[in-house]
Design a protein that fits this description.
Chain lengths: 197, 439
């Protein structure tokens, strides 16, 4: 008799608040997250950051598959449901972040955490991290990377537009620097939740 | 996933508790759970929490041509979706009955009550009207979906602002939100549904049943009312027989509850309006309570990208240069051209195919990368190539290899097939090798 175990991780992903103009330096927008906010699923998180659907789903699924230790849960279906509340740019990166936090909240064993970072290259080659919708539309290329937390290696990349390989490496290096902040955010929010003080 | 069945002892416990006027969460018979309304950054986006039941409402608008028999009225469209995250039983295929019932009730409540003035949505009679679309998503199901959904719908509609339009003679100008402030919809009244659950054939009633109570109830009475005590919709389901004075009593209770809820809604709308006007921060991020242990915020974080360029240059210098790319297309006949060369079928026998390593696509992959614009590459790999793998137990009998102009880039050999990439300037001629019958 087959045993069925269902672990559900559900997420709400929302991007960005406000559209303040960004200066020449790179910065990540304001982050907020809430965990365990839904009572029915096993784990849930809400992550707010500043035909396409199917491909986005596939990218997120492949990233999760690479990281989740599926062998510990044979015959199990892990469903990740993402609801976009509002989109203010960097949607894929926000979805990845929300997916990671929800999987953590559900207690699914993973070999590493992952985070998503988006870079936009505009027509004169300036790199902007975490672009708003407007910046994404006007950019020459938009690159989204999923990086893991152990060695900040690349798990998934999805790019649109024209760029040289130097620029690719630059964006990747910038994304790695940015991912440090995201992982620090994860760690602090989880510490806050699980610490005894 | 099938809903976990309710055990008999749980059912008995709930019914006994109700008989003794006790509810599991400590509420009184006529008490509502806490209602919390939060708004998003866009106009028309709100989340309503009724206890733990959570509904997301979003309103959007579009200019369309009107219906033929109602040429001067705008179009209203409502859609409630039971998201899969709301309950394990809500799978994309399976929820039809409940979904149809809820959608129908919402439509009757909001459309037939004429709470929105559809005449004001007309721009050019017979040609262009506004179509207002209300999308509701159930995010968490803890009972009483219909009340939460109706509150979310009416709040989202009240919060929504449509772009301003002006008509001068034949000319219609649609202003963007930057040019002119968007205008709110014209709403006559706010109908809100109140649900009553009946137990033991109508002997006991509870207002705002939660999920457990809904499972053991006999029937449900939904009354949609506005604050002027006008009943917009009334629906009784479950087949319970109610007496006339029971229904009247319920409508009186509904009147009181609707007044309270309407006040709460107006206050929430006013607060949001105030925050937006004063230029403070608004949106869902702000509504995440700071004090809650499960919530955390971080401010804008600057990232130091000064060493990015050096790092990038280092990596590129260390990487091997990409192999020579042959990208001249070859024209076979008018209308047929070839760029590069496709690889041969690599499906050998299944048991021998584990040696297959797709990653070293070599020059083919690099050609594609530089030509394609929209790539979804799983692993980015610059300039590295696998050493050719030569296996000696291949089963082919004879293979003729044509010498191309340049040296062959790579010989990729699998267990049952071998192929060779040639410069595309030569016509590809290969003897088919004998493949095993299992192909």
């Amino acid at each position: 008799m087959e045993e069925e175990m269902h672990t559900d991780a559900k997420i709400r992903a929302e991007s960005g608040t406000g559209s303040s103009p960004r200066g020449p330096g790179c910065s990540l927008r304001h982050f907020a997250c809430e965990q365990n906010l839904l009572s029915r699923p096993d784990g849930s998180a809400s992550f707010l950051q500043g035909v396409a659907e199917k491909s986005r789903e596939r990218l997120i699924r492949n990233t999760c598959e690479a990281v989740v230790l599926g062998t510990l849960h044979p015959r199990t279906s892990i469903t990740v449901v993402l609801q976009v509340v509002s989109d203010a740019g960097s949607l894929l990166a926000c979805c990845l972040n929300a997916a990671c936090m929800a999987l953590v909240d559900a207690g699914v064993p993973m070999r590493a955490l992952f985070c998503g970072v988006t870079c936009a290259l505009d027509s004169d080659g300036t790199l902007v991290l975490d672009p708003t919708s407007k910046q994404e539309k006007e950019a020459r290329a938009v690159l989204t990377f999923a990086l893991d937390s152990v060695e900040r290696k690349l798990l998934m990349s999805s790019t649109k537009g024209l760029y040289s390989d130097t620029e690719l490496q630059q964006c990747l290096a910038a994304a790695q620097a940015a991912s440090q902040h995201v992982f620090r955010f994860y760690r602090e929010s989880l510490q806050r939740r699980y610490s005894k003080s | 996933m099938k809903e976990t069945p309710l055990s008999n002892c749980e059912r008995r416990f709930l019914l006994r508790a109700i008989e003794e006027k006790k509810r599991l969460d400590g509420r009184q018979t006529y008490d509502y759970r806490n209602i919390r309304i939060s708004f998003g950054t866009d106009y028309g986006c709100c989340i309503v929490e009724l206890g733990k039941t959570r509904v997301l409402g979003q309103v959007s608008c579009e200019l369309v041509s009107p219906k033929l028999n109602r040429a001067t009225e705008g179009i209203l469209f409502f859609n409630l979706e039971l998201s899969q995250m709301a309950a394990p039983a809500f799978e994309p295929g399976r929820q039809s009955d409940l979904l149809v019932k809820l959608n129908r009730l919402l439509e009757r409540c909001l459309r037939n009550s004429k709470c929105i003035d559809t005449e004001s949505l007309c721009v050019v009679a017979g040609e262009k009207v506004w179509q207002i679309r209300v999308d509701l998503h159930l995010l968490n199901h803890d009972g009483n979906i219909i009340d939460a959904a109706s509150i979310a719908a009416i709040v989202a509609l009240c919060h929504f602002r449509r772009p301003d339009v002006s008509v001068q003679g034949d000319e219609v100008t649609l202003y963007t939100p930057e040019e002119r402030d968007p205008v709110p919809l014209s709403i006559h009244h706010m109908p809100i549904c109140v649900s009553f659950a009946f137990f033991q054939q109508g002997t006991y009633l509870l207002v705002d049943p939660n999920e457990r109570e809904e499972r053991v109830m006999d029937g449900l009475l939904v009354i949609a009312m506005n604050k002027h005590r006008e009943i917009c919709t009334i629906q009784s389901s479950g087949g319970i027989m109610l007496l006339k004075d029971q229904v009247l009593r319920c409508s009186k209770i509904a009147g009181v509850k609707v007044a309270e809820i309407t006040e709460l809604i107006l206050k929430a709308l006013e607060n949001d309006q105030k925050v937006r006007k004063e230029g403070g921060k608004f949106g869902f991020a702000e509504s995440i309570a700071n004090q809650r242990i499960t919530a955390f915020k971080m401010e804008k974080a600057p990232i130091d990208t000064s060493d990015v360029e050096e790092k990038a240059e280092e990596i590129i210098a260390e990487a091997e240069p990409p192999s020579e790319v042959v990208s001249t297309p070859v024209l076979w006949t008018p209308g047929t051209a070839q760029i590069g060369e496709g690889v041969e079928n690599s499906w050998g026998d299944l048991e021998d195919s584990e040696k297959e390593d797709d990653e070293g696509g070599g020059d083919q992959a690099i050609i594609l990368d530089s030509i394609k614009m929209d790539t979804g590459v799983e692993v980015s790999d610059i300039g590295s190539q696998d050493a050719p793998i030569i296996l000696s137990d291949s089963e082919e009998e004879e293979m003729i290899i044509l010498e191309p102009d340049k040296n062959p880039k790579k010989i990729r050999t699998q267990t049952t097939s071998a192929k060779q990439e040639k410069a595309p300037s030569k016509k590809p001629v290969k003897r088919r090798k004998k493949k095993r019958a299992a192909n």
